[in-house]
Amino acid sequence: MTPVTERLREVVDSFDPPDLPPLSETLVCTMDLPADLPEKMTIAQVAEVVGITAHTLRYYERIGLVDVGRDTAGYRRYDRDALARVVFVTRLRMSDMPIGVIARYVELVKQGEATEPERLALLQTHRATIMRRSQELAAALAVIDYKITTYGGTCSP
Fold first, then answer.
1. Where is the domain boundary, 54, 78, 94?
2. For 68-95, how does the pLDDT look when each residue is reduced to its tens digit (9 = 90+)?
3. Do the domain assignments include residue 28?
4. Which of the listed residues 71, 94, 117 is the one where a domain comes to its end?
5. Per-residue pLDDT at 25
6. In total, how many domains does the chain have?
7. Pairing label, strands 76-77, 69-70
């Protein structure tokens, strides 16, 4: 490791961002689903509600991350459980959790309550990764803010 890289690592490791606020109702609702959604939804409806493509939904189904029922004509019909799983998987992907790790988590869920300690460990490991990355981004943002103000700019939106 070069001296500059080593110093940067020290800065990142020592950066202490402010404590996160407690879970808010808004944050919890991002994992919950609106009450006014239909009991069964098409792939297009789910894609619109969740903000991902139908292609991604088909991929999640194909690799076993979500189980989707079919109607008598063979069209996908997402029930509330399937939709909740899609929302959860989407949030994990937004946090850069690899698909393979998500697949492992889903497999553990399917195995039942006995796997809860392993699931907890998996999520705690990922949380630590997110926290480290958050600190790195906060340190990078501080450097960018410094440079902006150095050039006479303002950092407010």
1. 94
2. 999 999 999 999 889 989 999 999 999 9
3. no
4. 94
5. 46
6. 2
7. antiparallel
Give 108's pLDDT tier (boundaries 50, 70, 90): very high
Same domain, 49 and 90: yes
Claim to verify: residue 76 and residue 105 sit in the same structural domain = no
87 shares a domain with 37: yes
Structure tokens at 110: 């399917």
pTM of the model: 0.73
Per residue in 35-71, pLDDT (tens digit) is: 778 889 999 999 999 999 999 999 999 999 999 999 9
Does a structural domain hold residue 60? Answer: yes
pLDDT tens-digit profile of 116-129? Answer: 999 999 999 999 99
Q: What is the DSSP string of the chain?
A: --HHHHHHHHHHHH--PPPPPPPPHHHHHHHS--TTS-SSB-HHHHHHHHTS-HHHHHHHHHTTS---EE-TTS-EEB-HHHHHHHHHHHHHHHTT--HHHHHHHHHHHHH-GGGHHHHHHHHHHHHHHHHHHHHHHHHHHHHHHHHHHHTT-----
Measured distance CA(81)–CA(141) in Å, rounded: 38
Pair (77, 44) in one structural domain: yes
| Rg of the Cα atoms in the chain | 20
Task: Fill in the amino acid letter for 23.
Answer: L
